[in-house]
Each structure stands twice: as structure tokens, then as C-alpha cells.
């Protein structure tokens, strides 16, 4: 009897078979249809030699095949490994070799990378092609489904079994495979539907990439757990998003801050009927206060969330009731997750003091794939050490101060870049801002602002920034250098790559 997340589709296919489950472009699948396709793919995987615990790597866009593959792996106890489709061939090869996969699914639009991958040495045996124009040796995805049974595979899956391996974004060093169990994903879903006003009538639009834990599990997997509807889009276009909200009556959205920022630039934003939206969540990186205020001013409940790949991802959420009163906070932890903020000696720090945020709960990953030392360093006595600096206020609300590695120490004073960046975002001509440290013989480190402008035709100087910040932050937090760029470097999940900026500095 399947107890894993694949059982969700089976249950809803029996309970509400004609309910719309998944939409991708002109393809619309009910729960019954989706469950049958997933069963067929699961049987096809078994016929190709995929066994419990085997990794199935995937280079896929946000298409129905991505979610079908994930659920098919779940039904037979295999581990689905979604790979960032923006990676170079050598970066993809690293994940393929690190995961030790024999089977690889890919989208025809990504064939150039896969053709180059074929020339590299790996353990890959079978390639499964999605779309037209397959390589002559490939299996065709739809052919595999058409030739397989629709019966339930019937594997006995435990909630402790791993079903998903997501490679961390790798902003420093090589990415690590975070092993997430069926239980991690299920308890994350329970946390989400307990803490957000989620109903089985909800419809979400997933444009954030499914290789990112936010795209996969902020709304997508929780809505399947609840029996709602997931609409996928494989291309983020702000105007198209607004049209889809209006046409499909989207009720909940998750985006990273860069995507929310792009939405605010849509021409005639207020002409779209987005009254169906009941809640929006930002996560993946700190969201500029100006963006939150933009949506709140239009009566759209805007939640600020915090999570990590390793926590599946839900750690905390600032709910709509407190979103204005506690602006800048990431809220509180959900029912089934505990958080602490500790000093270097693992002692709890009092409210107002900064320490490292640590997390415990059934949503915390099993560990890092084939990296026992890294796992041991990250998880101690059941607590996951996030590497994020945070503080509690007097009411227990969490404020993320910065990444430990991003903190700047200048003249013995700690400077948290987020604090300065949030003020800079209020400047009328600053579109993006990043604060980094650079070596300084006198102060140890000094502060540099890297910014992009809304109107690049006007010159912008360090004096302009210092004048704007004067009186808003302490003098020692003032940038001493400025660099104006066209755009800040970001990884595929929208996080600014400060490692790149520091290297250039």
C-alpha cells in the first residue's frame, strides 16, 4: 500500500476524479487522467530498470512532464532529481555524476546541452526525450506512457523514503544534493495549508522553476495534497502572468522578489481584473519593502515567507494580519516546525539580539547526498543550522538580518547588508541594490554599493547615496564606494550573487 506522496493522486482520482488537477498550455488533466498518466510512466520507469532508491535526473522546463515524472518516481520509490536548466553542460555533468543516475529525462528545447552531455563520461544509460525530434537512441516520453499499464504500481512506500533530491543553488562552492523524504514534502504541505488560507478550490500559477524548492513546494505540492488545481507556465512574462490571473481566476501565487518587481512594471496594471487573488507569497530572497507596499496598496494580501531547500522549504511566514504592522519580518514558524536563534555557543539569544537561525521539524531534510561530513555540520541533535543571521522581536516575530557569510565587519562594527539595501530601495531612481564588503587596511572592511538604476541617463554618485542615507542609517554603515551596473548578477532562483560581486570588488 503506497503511503508516499504518489498516494495523493490516487486518493483524489477516486474521491473527485473529474476535478481539474493540472494545466499546461492547452493540456488540461483531471485527477483521474493525471493519476493514470503517472501510473503509466511509473511502470515505464520500472521496465527501463529503475528501482527503489535509484535517481532519475531531469532537465525539464515547467511542463506537465516535470510533475508527472516526480510523482511517477514517488510511486515506485525512486528519487527525482530536477536540474536547473540554465546550467552549463559541465555544471549539469557534475550533478549527473554526483547523483549517480542511470536515467535522464530532458525537454527537446534543451537538446543542445544534452547533446554535449552525451560526449562526457557518466553513468547515464537511458535518455528519455520530451517533445519532437528525439535522438535516435532515445526513448520517447509519450511512447513510454502509451505502452504502459494504468494500474497502480502498488509499491510499499514509507514517509521516510527519499523522493526528491534538489541541488542547492551553489552560490558558494559546489552544489549539494538535499535529500527530501515523502514525509518532508507531506509535512511541508500540512504546514502550508494550516498557515495559509488554502482550499481545495484554489488555483495556483507556477512559473517559478520547479527545480527550485519554492516553485515545487510553496504552492504546487501543497495544492496537490489539498486537491486543488496547478497551472504551469514554462516562461515568465509579466504581462502574460497578469492575463492568466484574470483568465484562469488564480487565487494564490508564489514568486521570488525579482518576479514580483517585474509585475509592478506591467503597463496599465490596474486595468487587469485580479480580484480572484486571495494571497500572494514572496520568498527565495528578501523582498524590498517597496514591492510589498505596492501590492498591499491594491488590497492584495501579501505574505513574506522564509524557507530553504533543506527545510522543504517552509520555515516561517508573515501572515496578512500582521503584514503591515510587522513589515520587514518573515513572521513566525508554523505549527509543526520549531525555530531558535542561537549564539556561537548554541545558547538562545534574547529578543533584539542577532544570532544564527536553527530549525527543527519533520520538514527538515534527511541530509546531503553522499556528504556525511556536510550533513553532520548542518544538522546537530535534530536542529538544522541555516547559516542565516536573525533576531526575534518582543512578540516572537523573526527578522532575517543576513547570511552569516554576507555580514560585513568594519572598524569592529557588524553591518548587515539587508538593512542598508532596504533603505536604498526607497530611492526613487534605484531599481536594484546590493551591499558588499571590500578589504580596507584601516577598517578591515569597507562598504560598497552596487546598484542598477531605473533611469540610467542621469549620473549617480557616491555623494548622492550618502546624502540619501544621511539620517536613515548610522554613519559607519554608509557605503564608501559605488558601482552602477545595468543589472545585478542573479542565479536561476533570483538570488543576487554577492560572491560574484565580491570577487569583482
UniProtKB/TrEMBL annotation:
InterPro entries: AMP-bd_C, AMP-bd_C_sf, AMP-binding_CS, AMP-dep_synth/lig_dom, ANL_N_sf
Keyword DNA repair part of the UniProt annotation: no
GO molecular function terms noted in the UniProt entry: ligase activity
Top-rank lineage group of the source organism: Bacteria
Every AMP-dependent synthetase/ligase domain range: 16-369
Family: Belongs to the ATP-dependent AMP-binding enzyme family.
NCBIfam families linked: PRK06187.1
Record protein name field: Long-chain fatty acid--CoA ligase
Species annotation: Alkalihalobacterium chitinilyticum
Amino acid at each position: 500500500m503506497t503511503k508516499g506522496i504518489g498516494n495523493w493522486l490516487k486518493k483524489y482520482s477516486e474521491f473527485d476524479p473529474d476535478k481539474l488537477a493540472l494545466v499546461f498550455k492547452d493540456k488540461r488533466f483531471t485527477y483521474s487522467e493525471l493519476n493514470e498518466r503517472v501510473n503509466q510512466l511509473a511502470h515505464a520507469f520500472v521496465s527501463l530498470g529503475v528501482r527503489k532508491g535509484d535517481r532519475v535526473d531531469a532537465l525539464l522546463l515547467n511542463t506537465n512532464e516535470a510533475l508527472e515524472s516526480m510523482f511517477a518516481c514517488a510511486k515506485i520509490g525512486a528519487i527525482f532529481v530536477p536540474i536547473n536548466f540554465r546550467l552549463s553542460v559541465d555544471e549539469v555533468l557534475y550533478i549527473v555524476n554526483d547523483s549517480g543516475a542511470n536515467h535522464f529525462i530532458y525537454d527537446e528545447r534543451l537538446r543542445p546541452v544534452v547533446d554535449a552531455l552525451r560526449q562526457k563520461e557518466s553513468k547515464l544509460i537511458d535518455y528519455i526525450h520530451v517533445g519532437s525530434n528525439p535522438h535516435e537512441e532515445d526513448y520517447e516520453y509519450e511512447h513510454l506512457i502509451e505502452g504502459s499499464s494504468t494500474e497502480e504500481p502498488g509499491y510499499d512506500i514509507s514517509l521516510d523514503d527519499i523522493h526528491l533530491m534538489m541541488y542547492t543553488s551553489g552560490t558558494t562552492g559546489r552544489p549539494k544534493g538535499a535529500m527530501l523524504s515523502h514525509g518532508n514534502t507531506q509535512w511541508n504541505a500540512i504546514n502550508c495549508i494550516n498557515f495559509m488560507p488554502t482550499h481545495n478550490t484554489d488555483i495556483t500559477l507556477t512559473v517559478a522553476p520547479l527545480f527550485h524548492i519554492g516553485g515545487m513546494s510553496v504552492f504546487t505540492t501543497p495544492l496537490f495534497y489539498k486537491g486543488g488545481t496547478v497551472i504551469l507556465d514554462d516562461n515568465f512574462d509579466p504581462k502574460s502572468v497578469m492575463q492568466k490571473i484574470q483568465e484562469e481566476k488564480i487565487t494564490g501565487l508564489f514568486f521570488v522578489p525579482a518576479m514580483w518587481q517585474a509585475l509592478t512594471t506591467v503597463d496599465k496594471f490596474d486595468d487587469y481584473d485580479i480580484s480572484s487573488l486571495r494571497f500572494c507569497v514572496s520568498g527565495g530572497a528578501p523582498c524590498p519593502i517597496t514591492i510589498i507596499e505596492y501590492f498591499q496598496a491594491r488590497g492584495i494580501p501579501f505574505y513574506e515567507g522564509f524557507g530553504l531547500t533543506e527545510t522543504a522549504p517552509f520555515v516561517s511566514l508573515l501572515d496578512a494580519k500582521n503584514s503591515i504592522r510587522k513589515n520587514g519580518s518573515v513572521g513566525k514558524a508554523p505549527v509543526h516546525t520549531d525555530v531558535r536563534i542561537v549564539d556561537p555557543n548554541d545558547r538562545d539569544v534574547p529578543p533584539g539580539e542577532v544570532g544564527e537561525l536553527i530549525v527543527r521539524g519533520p520538514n527538515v531534510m534527511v541530509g546531503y547526498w553522499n556528504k556525511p561530513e556536510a550533513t553532520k555540520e548542518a544538522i546537530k541533535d535534530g536542529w538544522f543550522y541555516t547559516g542565516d543571521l536573525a533576531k526575534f522581536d518582543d512578540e516572537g516575530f523573526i527578522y532575517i538580518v543576513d547570511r552569516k557569510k554576507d555580514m560585513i565587519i568594519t572598524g569592529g562594527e557588524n553591518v548587515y547588508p539587508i538593512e542598508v539595501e532596504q533603505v536604498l530601495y526607497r530611492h526613487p531612481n534605484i531599481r536594484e541594490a546590493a551591499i558588499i564588503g571590500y578589504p580596507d587596511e584601516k577598517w578591515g572592511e569597507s562598504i560598497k554599493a552596487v546598484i542598477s538604476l531605473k533611469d540610467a541617463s542621469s549620473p549617480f554618485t557616491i555623494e548622492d547615496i550618502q546624502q540619501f542615507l544621511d539620517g536613515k542609517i548610522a554613519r559607519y554603515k554608509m557605503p564608501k564606494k559605488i558601482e552602477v551596473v545595468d543589472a545585478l548578477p542573479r542565479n536561476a532562483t533570483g538570488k543576487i550573487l554577492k560572491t560574484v560581486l565580491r570577487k569583482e570588488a
